[in-house]
Design brief:
- Helix content is 27%, strand content 31%.
- It is built from one helix and three strands, in the order E-E-E-H.
- It is elongated and about 40 Å long.
Length: 64
């Protein structure tokens, strides 16, 4: 996902870990492994995923 970079939660100061994360949009839900803070649950979504796959899913669901 982010190569060998270590990302740290700004709030909790702990390393983000890969965890299954649920997303919901327009009544549809889907799951994906994302980096998330094990303490507060804040999720890091890389820009390439936001501009790529998430954008595709939004457009597909909005067209229905």
């Amino acid at each position: 996902m982010e190569g060998d970079r270590t990302l740290i939660c700004h709030r909790c100061k702990v390393k983000l870990v890969k965890a299954q994360t649920s997303f919901e949009y327009l009544g549809h839900s889907f799951h994906s492994d994302m980096l998330r803070c094990p303490r507060c649950g804040q999720v890091f979504i890389p820009e390439e995923i936001v501009k790529g796959r998430i954008n595709e899913v939004e457009m597909m669901l909005e067209d229905k």
